[in-house]
From TrEMBL:
Family to which the UniProt record says this protein belongs: Belongs to the Ca(2+):cation antiporter (CaCA) (TC 2.A.19) family. SLC24A subfamily.
GO CC, one annotated term: plasma membrane
Swiss-Prot/TrEMBL keywords: Antiport, Calcium, Calcium transport, Ion transport, Membrane, Potassium, Potassium transport, Signal, Sodium, Sodium transport, Symport, Transmembrane, Transmembrane helix, Transport
InterPro entries with a match to the protein in the record: K/Na/Ca-exchanger, NaCa_Exmemb, NCX_ion-bd_dom_sf
Protein name: Sodium/calcium exchanger membrane region domain-containing protein
Example GO BP: intracellular calcium ion homeostasis
Main location: membrane
Naturally occurring in which organism (per UniProt): Elysia crispata
Keyword Calcium: yes
Its membrane topology: Multi-pass membrane protein
Transmembrane segments: 97-120, 141-161, 167-188, 200-219, 225-245, 371-401, 407-429, 441-459, 479-498, 505-524
GO molecular function: calcium channel activity; calcium, potassium:sodium antiporter activity; symporter activity
Subcellular location: Membrane
Domain of life: Eukaryota
Length: 541
């Protein structure tokens, strides 16, 4: 009893995180001390005497890593993959870069409007039509939708830029999704959110399988057509697994007693907010001569962050039966709000609202509800377009202020590409759907690895150049895989020791873990622990 009383889960989690970060740093240092003389400062392969070796030097006879044979003397700048800017480098340094900063902020506003007004409402209707559990929808449709910008960028990179798909952005966005997105969700929630263990365990298991598959595929530093096809097949199996989620959940939840019981065993029905139900009940009272009762309605309230089903509410009179609608009072985007700040934001969003109103059906309206699939896919189109513009602006900003592309891909670009995940997760967790928000964060990583890498690799090896292979530079594979595996462990252990509550305290711990990973990864990319990455090529962009 004394030992149990003295055990402090949060302190243990902090020390575990620090130990993981220390091991990662030690791995960098060991790699640096193990082979400091393999490369010169210019990126050439050298022998034991320090003399440069030719590029056709046989690594099989001298025991060197194969990636050194293919490593160029410099890497092209990422900004070269985007269209030319209307401003020159000199003009940007003289002040035009501020316009790009404004563009990034405006794209953030655009993504918020698309997610809040169209993407999330379409998901709610989709869950209702297909009778999906909210966590399943978050791990599949929501994860695929919010990761659509990453898929679009990867496909554009294959067909337009003709560039190999690097792993740094995938690793950066993966850490970002697991640690940062979950942390922001906990900080943005109105109160502590009670999570169910099964959705988190299920999605993390699928994520671990994806990581292992990634390690196995790129271990030999060559991607072949059947390996890319295996990635896509694994994601299909993941979808099939999700299809049988409900019977699997019942089977495991009743047999595993080491986890807390589910907050509610009833299936998810219709997702609504508490204030939306109050609105509908008030109308039911008016239409029902003051009885305020509802018959044969099946709705879902949010209580302490958990979805709870209410079914078959009895009525005092058969004539007063009224169905509770899922939609809240329709918001008019053309109605100016009160307050100077809100009015300024509304004024700036008028062009965006006009474009959205013309091109996307508003499925929140009863007359447009049947067009929810069009709403969903058109939302994906605009999410991809706005995210592409945001990443373009962020890349130009990084190039102008001379931030290395490797650091940008792990930090700012990962932020821009994964921003739809943040916005969508925050919106649903404010509705009390914690499982849906966390499933979106973890499920997005499964989609990123298996689909956002699998499709471009498949197109390159089977469509553009059948039978060809893709060379992968896997210098940081070991450290990247340890990073991804450790983030999953920290997430599960942190939530478990916190009694499956996502609160402010554990969210702050996750935020510091993300910052620590980002700093160590950036130091590695900047060759602080040794020369692992070539210098960047000069550019006249």
């Amino acid at each position: 009893m004394l030992g149990r009383r003295s055990f402090r889960p949060k302190v243990f989690l902090i020390w575990a995180s620090a130990l993981t970060l220390g091991l990662r740093g030690a791995g960098y240092l060991f790699d640096f001390l193990g082979n400091p003389s393999d490369l010169t400062a210019s990126g050439h392969v050298v022998d034991s005497l320090g003399d440069p070796l030719p590029l056709e030097y046989s690594t099989a006879d001298h025991g060197m890593s194969r990636h050194l044979l293919y490593m160029p003397n410099c890497t092209p700048r990422a900004v070269e993959q985007f269209p030319r800017d209307i401003f020159s480098q000199q003009q940007r340094k003289e002040g035009a870069i501020l316009l790009h900063v404004v563009g990034v902020i405006y794209m953030f506003l655009a993504l918020s409007i698309v997610c809040d007004s169209y993407f999330v409402p379409a998901l709610e209707v989709l869950c209702d039509m297909l009778h999906l559990q909210t966590d399943v929808a978050g791990a599949t449709f929501m994860a695929a939708g919010s990761s659509a910008p990453e898929l679009a960028t990867a496909v554009i990179g294959v067909f337009i830029a003709k560039d190999d798909v690097g792993l740094s952005t995938v690793v950066g966005s993966a850490i970002y999704n697991v640690m940062f997105v979950v942390s922001v969700c906990g900080l943005a929630a109105n109160s502590a959110v009670q999570l169910s263990w099964w959705p988190l365990f299920r999605d993390c298991l699928a994520y671990l399988v994806s990581i292992v598959a990634l390690i196995v595929v790129i271990m030999d530093e060559v991607i072949r057509w059947y390996e890319s096809l295996m990635f896509l097949a694994l994601y299909v199996l993941y979808i099939v697994f999700m299809f049988f989620n409900q019977p699997l959940e019942k089977y495991f939840v009743h047999r595993l007693r080491c986890f807390p019981p589910e907050a509610s065993s009833v299936p998810d029905q219709v997702v609504v907010q508490y204030e939306k139900v109050s609105y509908s009940e008030s109308h039911a009272s008016e239409n029902g001569n003051g009885s305020g009762a509802v018959s044969e309605a099946s709705v879902q309230l949010t209580k302490n962050g958990r979805a709870t089903s209410l079914e078959s509410l009895s009525s005092n009179s058969e004539e007063t039966a009224t169905e509770i609608h899922k939609a809240a009072p329709e918001e008019n985007p053309w109605h100016a709000p009160r307050g100077r700040c809100a009015y300024c934001i509304w004024l700036l969003s008028i062009p965006l609202n006009a474009v959205m109103y013309i091109t996307i059906p508003d499925c929140r309206q009863d007359s447009m509800r049947k067009w929810f699939l069009v709403t969903f896919f058109m939302s994906l189109v605009w999410l991809s377009a706005f995210s592409f513009l945001m990443v373009w602006m962020i890349t130009i900003i990084g190039f102008t202020v001379d931030i290395p592309d490797s650091v940008m891909s792990l930090t700012f670009v990962a932020f821009g590409v994964s921003l739809p995940d943040v916005v969508a997760s925050v919106l649903v967790i404010k509705d009390g759907l914690g499982d849906m928000a966390v499933s979106n964060a973890v499920g997005s990583n499964v989609f990123d690895i298996l689909v956002c890498l699998g499709i471009p690799w498949f197109l390159q090896t089977c469509v553009l150049s059948p039978g060809s292979t893709i060379q992968v530079y896997s210098e940081g594979l070991l450290y990247s895989s340890i990073t991804l595996l450790s983030t999953v462990a920290i997430l599960i252990l942190g939530i478990h020791f916190n009694k499956w509550l996502l609160d402010k305290c554990i969210s702050i711990v996750f935020m510091f873990v993300y910052i620590g990973y980002s700093i160590l990864a950036s130091m590695y990319e900047l060759n602080v622990f040794g020369y692992f990455h070539p210098e960047e090529c000069p550019s006249d962009y």
